Amino acid sequence: MNDNKNYSGFSKEQQKRYEREIRQKFGKAKFDESKRRTASWQKEDYLKMQQEGERIFTIIRDNISRGAESPEVRAQIGKLKDWLNHYYACDDEMLMGLGHMYNEHPDFVKMWKTKYHEKMPEFLYQAIDAYCRGKGVATGN
Hints:
Helix content is 70%, strand content 0%. By secondary structure, the protein is mainly α. The chain has one domain.
């Protein structure tokens, strides 16, 4: 994950900081797993994954008015989890951790609000929480 293709739009300094944060929050094993899974990816692979992620997040944004527990949003959170599984094994606990990070990390909050919607950080957290609660996962709420 130290390759520029994984952090397009971020400076080298930001890349290094995110790598440290990933290791601290999720462990070196997850970081190394992601590096292994993406080692053979070409530029087209990264582009395809970026487009798929944008499609998922755009559909989530377009369904904010339906609510975090709506079937449309829950289906997209399932697709988000599947999408993340291309990078590393993403269980529901990790998904909840990402939901917290999306709603709390200043860089992510700014990106979600700027690129998608003012309510996107909190909505993503709520939608991930609803998805995991629907599966019987303890979410900390």
